[in-house]
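Discussion board: Methods & Data

I've been asked by a reviewer to show the raw model output for two of the constructs in my manuscript, not just the figures. I'm not sure how much to include, so I'm pasting the format here to get opinions. Each protein appears as its amino acid sequence followed by a line of discrete structure tokens. Is this the kind of thing reviewers expect to see in a supplement, or should I convert it first? Here is construct A:
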Amino acid sequence: MLQKTRFLVSSIAVLILAGAIAPTAANAGSVGNLMHPYFAAKATNATVAIKLYNKGTTSQDVKVNDQVYTVGPHASVTIKAAAGTQVYAATASASHQLGDMLFVITPQLDGGTVSFN
């Protein structure tokens, strides 16, 4: 009889312990926190400001979100766009053709300079 009581008490103790640990473990990881709607919306709507610098000797046009920016020779233009936006060449040059994708804007580029020719 003592063995059955001990088994029952230890089983209940394990269930209580598992119930106490499960909520803590579920919220401990950063992945769980990023799944929260607040963080998910903030991550997808991140606006990135970058400076485009033209290393070439002629003016170049770049297309960002259907808007064309003209960058003069040895000049720069600051643009703001959402992370994940693709930047395309709107004029051909020696290193790229019209419509070629030059790069993708990432959050790591925020405040930085991207040079092209």
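Construct B, same format:
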Amino acid sequence: MVGALLALGGCGGGNRSTRTQSRPNAGSASVKPAAGLTRFSDPGLLSISYPSRWSRLPSGDPQVPLLVSSPDRAEALLLRVTRIGLAVRTVTLRELPKLRPLTDHIVGADPNAHLVQPVREAVLGGLPGFVYVYTATGKLRGPGIGHVHYFFFRGQTLIQLVFQAAQSSRLQAAAHDFERIEATFKATPVPVAAPRKR
């Protein structure tokens, strides 16, 4: 999905929202990851694998259970898991537009973030959500860091996958690694509540 997004190009404005097709979740999560990948699992919630050559970094944030980067620190992945209060138990594509202000607010909280593509709806691992492609300048005001930022809704949980490239110009080159990681994402279905006995 990442490669297709970047190949689409386009720029500016998060006022439009289009839909991005993604690969369906290929069955249940495998205990053994593919060769060259290291698997991370949050039992009962999700699993994802990243290149074994990448290093896991301390996050210091309980909502960020996974933070990894490539050996040269040119590419990185951050996984954030947050409990949120929603009026619906299961989010579908129909409800997504109502949740757009929430994700807009999260990305817009960084005044240095600048969208380079329209925001798109996306589905990954059976979960609906949005993807934002943007650059954000750091404290040194150097070349903007490229971000491909996914928001997925699983019941009362918001899952964020943030792929980063040290320079926005490297996003296309990093697409292969990002897509390889993305393809391993598996989400555990939300348990169905048992009907109340009358």
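Answer (T.O., handling editor elsewhere):
This is acceptable in a supplement if you add a one-line summary per construct. For B, something like: The longest strand covers residues 127-136.
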